[in-house]
Amino acid sequence: MELWSIHNAKALIALDIRTMDDSPLAAAEINLHFPSIKLAQVRGSAQVIERNERFIRRHPMDVIGVFFALAGEAFFYYPGGFETLRPGQAVIYDADRPFMRGFHRGVEEMVLTIPREEYLALSGGRPLTKPVVVDFHDAGPSNRHMLALARLVREALATGTAGGAPAAAPLDARAVEASSLELLRLLVAGRGAGTPLGYLASARCFIEEHLADPDLCPARVADAVGISERHLTRVFAEEAEPPGAYVLRRRLERARSLLADEGERTTPIAAVAARCGFSSQAYFARVFKARFGMTPLAARRGGADTLILPD
After folding, report:
1. Of 143, 174, 200, 244, which residue has the fewest beta carbons closer than 10 angstroms?
2. Is residue 86 assigned to a domain?
């Protein structure tokens, strides 16, 4: 318990931690630190964490925390209120305001912290006086910007740590931090306060979720992230790629990944095309070859006998 408390104080947030019974604590935490934000993935047995007024005076943090619940229910007490948090919900709260959180079945969550000063810059100077609970669950109605932020945090933790093994691609720390901050701005400052980077991250998240939908189009993406289609086009212009072209590229990249997957070896190519949002197998084959210089069948075989065209 002492080691767990010391680690959290150094790596994330100083907490008064105790178990709910006499069982020993089992816990693990993965941390990523950026210049402005900190990310963590936390797993542990049943426990209660608290920061009361006396503890806060001894251990001020000056940070805002975003806690993404991934499994199990948790209670959240704060002055004047109470929340029950379910998997797929995130709570935003000022760590220097008293609170108590309990995990009677264990904790599994992701955490993002940001200095209060930077949070105030994002929120237009509005302080966080009580917790804000936002849904981000993939399978149900959710706040699109919070869902995008949760996906970004999850992918950063997976890429930045890779379970101790070399990551498949290097972590772009600057891009992760910038996108996280702009998604937070969209969440806390409200409609019309977003920047192109924030809307771009949110739009890309929506596209990834709906690649299998053949009706996915720029108009649907724009509506999902709360901007006009013209504004969406300007957002993607920052990346020199129209939204429609981005959707097609991501569909083709996903298809190529599926075709190279040994576990998908017996999946018909028509089914692969459908899973990537192509309603016509002939069109899929044509655009796939135009992109990669080989047919989908050749890609499944490894493409050794084909000419690979440059991007």
Report:
1. 174
2. yes
